[in-house]
Structures are given as structure tokens and as C-alpha cells.
Design a protein that fits this description.
It is built from 19 helices and no strands. It is mainly α.
Length: 387
């Protein structure tokens, strides 16, 4: 949970970076910036499966935190735009290592509803990281030390040191350590229709989450004409509601079927986005500031979706395929993040941000349709090969 908290703050500091650099760099340039994180993340996830299998999940997680520690210390000391690209590449590579390791540890130690609960709890810490980074940087940006905002990353470096010290003393079951060798037909398993539906959903889920987490502060600043501090604070409440949403899901999944929870969440998200678009289109001059309160509430129902989809598939996949499954999830997540950021960058560049809720609603409709196929389709694989 601490590891995911740290990576959450790093991955979602993009909202802060976009706000701070938007006066010097065009939205097109900032939209491309996200790909420096996502492309190395996708490439690393392809090649690190066997590496993690040999070194073990714990060591891979330690390596990722060390990389983050060094890069966060260096970031404030190098005052050039190109170093942000290098820094984001390091963050992407490190998160690929960390995510595969953490999800494999969960798979080795939890089953069924408990596994779903564990994933929701870990993902809840991810959402709290977004809240923390927005409130922390928002406070720093409005203080008399705003010009030193990049030194806020030293706090993340300090948290990395604490996590490394705690992690070093923990005994972790490495049941998968020697299992992930290359086997004939390894990739064929992941062409199962249920998994294909899942990977497409992952792409669009991260696409949507990125549209909110990285670009909501800019939407508030551009459309509501509020300063950076209030834009970040309003966006921080999106993360806070997301935290409570995932925390509640970690309990509710023990009692209710995942499909029922997802349908309820999707329905409420559609409703809130529809209300927001109506406010913008027809009641903008009188009620636009209601958006500051209404839009963050989406997090309460949007955030539970990703861990629910992940836990449903992770429960169905054999242990020895977990590393490879999560690496493919990271690839589709990276692609979704990059495309989502470019999508939003074009919308803001074309001055079409008045339709911000509507543009988010479109990919959600695709997820809604695919969820029915995901629920009805079984995973098929050769059980004799697994034995």
C-alpha cells in the first residue's frame, strides 16, 4: 500500500506539472509529455517478466523504489524541461516493475473475495496518493515558497526511504519465483475472448482516469477561472472520493457480485456526467461553480471499477501466468494513459473543454457494453498444460 501511495503521487503529479508548465509549454507539448512515462512503462513491462521471475517480487519492488528515490532527489536540482522527460521515463519503468510485483504478491497470498478486497485496499491507497499530492502541491504553490515547488518531490523521496526500510525486513512468499519461464503457447492463452475484452476495458478505464486525474485541474482553471490552488484542491477531492469508493468496495465485494457493483457504479457515473454537461451547456453562468462540488463526486463511483475488473480476471488466471497478465495490463494501461492525455490535450487546444464531461462519457459507453461480454464469457485454457 505504501508503494502504491508513492507511485500514485508520482504518476498523478502530472496535473501539477501541466498547471505549472502550461504558461511556458503549449498544450500539444504537454499532451506528448505523458508518453515519456507511458511508452517506457509499456516496453519495460514486456521485458521485465522473466527478470522479476528470477530476482523475486520483493527485490523487484525494492529496485523500483531505489530508482524513484534517486530520481526524485535529482528533479529539483535540474532546472530544464528535458529532464522532466527523463524523470517521467524513470517513473514509468519503475512503476512497471512495482505493479507486476505487487499484484503477484497479492495473487500468491489471497484468493477469491479476499483477493478482490486486497486489490481494492491497495488501489484505495493509490487514490489517497492523488489526494495527498494535489493538496500538498496546492498548498506549496500558494505559499511564499511557490518557486521551489519541485522540492516537494523530496517528500516523496523521504517516503521511499521509509518504505524501503520497512520492506527490507518483511518476509514475502516467492511462490512464483521459478515458475514464469517461457512455455509453448504462452501468449495464446491471453487471446481468450474474455481476456481480450478485459484488456480493451483496461485501456479505456485508464484513458478515462487519466482524463480526470491529469486534466481536471486545467478544466477548473480554464473554465471556472479559479487559481491553481483551488483547481488542485477541487481535483484533490476527486481523489478523496475515489479513496472512499475503493475502500467501500473492498468491503462490499465480500457480499455482492462484482458485476452488480459495476453496473450500479456505471449508472451513477453516467448520471453525474450528464448533470455536469447540462449545467455547462444551459446553466453555465448561474451554476458553473456547482461543478466544483459535483464533478469530484464521480470518484466515489468511478474509482471502484478498475479494481473490480482486475480482481475478477486475476481470480480466474493461474498463478504462474500472473506476471505476464499484469505486464499486459501495464501495456494497455500505458497506451490508455498516453492516448487519453493526447485526447484531452487536443480538446483543450481546440477550446472544446466546455464538452469535457461529454468527451469522457463516450469511452465509458464502450466499457459499459464490453462489461456484459466480460461477465458472460468464460476463460478457456488447456488445464493439462497447467499441470
Amino acid at each position: 500500500m505504501l508503494s502504491f501511495l508513492i507511485f500514485s503521487m508520482l504518476l498523478n503529479s502530472m496535473g501539477v506539472i501541466i498547471l505549472q508548465l502550461s504558461e511556458k509549454v503549449s498544450y500539444k507539448g504537454l499532451g506528448v509529455l505523458e508518453s515519456f512515462k507511458d511508452i517506457p512503462m509499456a516496453i519495460m513491462s514486456l521485458f521485465c517478466v522473466n527478470l522479476i521471475a528470477k530476482t523475486g517480487n520483493k527485490n523487484a519492488l525494492i529496485f523500483s523504489l531505489v530508482f524513484i528515490l534517486v530520481s526524485c532527489i535529482a528533479l529539483p536540482l535540474v532546472d530544464t524541461f528535458w529532464f522532466f522527460k527523463i524523470w517521467l521515463s524513470i517513473v514509468g519503468v519503475s512503476f512497471a516493475l512495482a505493479k507486476i510485483s505487487v499484484f503477484s504478491i497479492i495473487k500468491n497470498n489471497f484468493k477469491d473475495a479476499q483477493l478482490s478486497s486486497a486489490i481494492s485496499s491497495v488501489d484505495a491507497s493509490f487514490m489517497f496518493g492523488i489526494f495527498f499530492v494535489n493538496i500538498g502541491f496546492g498548498t506549496l504553490l500558494t505559499s511564499s515558497y511557490s518557486e521551489y515547488w519541485k522540492f516537494g518531490f523530496w517528500v516523496i523521496a523521504f517516503l521511499s526511504i521509509i518504505t524501503l526500510l520497512l520492506l527490507k525486513s518483511v518476509d514475502i512468499d516467492e511462490a512464483q519465483k521459478s515458475e514464469d519461464g517461457k512455455k509453448p503457447g504462452e501468449w495464446k492463452f491471453f487471446l481468450s475472448p474474455k481476456l481480450v475484452y478485459f484488456f480493451i476495458i483496461v485501456f479505456f478505464m485508464v484513458f478515462i482516469e487519466q482524463s480526470f486525474n491529469s486534466w481536471l485541474p486545467s478544466f477548473f482553471k480554464n473554465n471556472l477561472k479559479i487559481n491553481s490552488y483551488f483547481a488542485l484542491q477541487a481535483s484533490a477531492f476527486l481523489a478523496l472520493f475515489s479513496f472512499f469508493g475503493r475502500l467501500a468496495t473492498s468491503r462490499l465485494i465480500l457480499r455482492f457480485h462484482w458485476f452488480k457493483l459495476i453496473m450500479i457504479c456505471l449508472f451513477v457515473v453516467f448520471l453525474i456526467l450528464g448533470i455536469c454537461q447540462v449545467l455547462i451547456s444551459y446553466f453555465y453562468s448561474d451554476y458553473k461553480f456547482l461543478l466544483i462540488f459535483i464533478m469530484p463526486m464521480i470518484g466515489l463511483f468511478l474509482a471502484p471499477l478498475f479494481p473490480l475488473y482486475n480482481s475478477e480476471i486475476l481470480n480466474k488466471v493461474p498463478k504462474e501466468k500472473t506476471h505476464l497478465l499484469v505486464s499486459i495490463v501495464v501495456i494497455f494501461s500505458s497506451l490508455g494513459s498516453s492516448v487519453g492525455s493526447l485526447y484531452m490535450a487536443i480538446i483543450f487546444y481546440k477550446d472544446a473543454s466546455n464538452f469535457y464531461p461529454l468527451f469522457i462519457l463516450l469511452p465509458l459507453l464502450i466499457i459499459f457494453g464490453l462489461t456484459f461480454f466480460l461477465n458472460k464469457t468464460p476463460i478457456t485454457y488447456d488445464r493439462e498444460q497447467q499441470e
